[in-house]
């Protein structure tokens, strides 16, 4: 097994073929030889050493995962620095986008344009409640159900319902009271 390489020396030419074959010692050697300099390089882009270290860690994980199909044009060291640069730039773009989004969302007018998506449980409960209300309405006497439908689904006023059905306004009030009482009992 070879020891770690100084950061300034070029990597051995057999390192990439050994890495492609799954040689753990080659991977470890590559990690030890380049990790510190890659983190320092990424820190210049991200401004955060911990985030840069995480970015480099993800690069090495990806490198190990894709080792068999890795296409490197030029030097392996150049490939790693290019990959870190691209990832760091992606992080900066994502951070800028998140910052812009947060700034936009701070304004009431913009927040109103982006209502919160419905929660799955709330949608399910709403559908379940609608089904229970429909079933309860179906169980009402025909005249009572018609008054309820005209009032709540069609939005007619008491006088309009009375005129449509040919009953008094007091009769509409009585039918609505009876219907609401029955619905409350079923839905309780």
Question: What can you tell me about this protein's structure?
Answer:
This protein is an all-alpha fold and 188 residues long. The protein has helices spanning 15-20, 24-46, 49-65, 76-105, 108-113, 120-139, 142-153, 158-165, 169-187. The protein is built from nine helices and no strands. Helix 2 (24-46) runs antiparallel to helix 3 (49-65), helix 2 (24-46) crosses helix 4 (76-105) and helix 8 (158-165) packs across helix 9 (169-187). It starts with 14 loop residues before the first helix and ends with a helix. It has two domains: 15-109, Orthogonal Bundle (Rna Polymerase Sigma Factor, Chain: A); 120-187, Winged helix-like DNA-binding domain superfamily/Winged helix DNA-binding domain (Arc Repressor Mutant, subunit A, Orthogonal Bundle). It is rod-shaped, with a radius of gyration of 34 Å.
């Amino acid at each position: 097994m070879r020891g770690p390489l100084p950061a300034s020396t070029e990597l051995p030419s057999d390192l990439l073929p050994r890495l492609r074959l799954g040689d753990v010692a080659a991977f470890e050697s590559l990690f030890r030889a380049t990790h510190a300099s890659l983190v320092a390089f990424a820190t210049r882009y991200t401004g955060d050493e911990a985030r840069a270290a995480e970015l480099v860690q993800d690069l090495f994980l990806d490198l190990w995962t894709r080792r068999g199909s890795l296409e490197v044009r030029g030097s392996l060291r150049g490939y790693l620095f290019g990959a870190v640069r691209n990832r760091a730039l992606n992080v900066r773009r994502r951070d800028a986008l998140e910052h812009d989004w947060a700034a936009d969302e701070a304004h009431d007018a913009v927040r109103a344009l982006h209502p919160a998506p419905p929660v799955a449980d709330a949608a399910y409960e709403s559908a379940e409640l609608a089904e229970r209300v429909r079933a309860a309405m179906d169980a009402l006497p025909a005249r009572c159900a018609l008054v309820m439908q005209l009032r709540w689904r069609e939005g007619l006023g008491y006088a309009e319902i009375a005129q449509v059905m040919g009953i008094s306004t007091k009769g509409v009030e009585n039918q609505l009271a009876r219907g609401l009482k029955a619905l409350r009992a079923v839905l309780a």
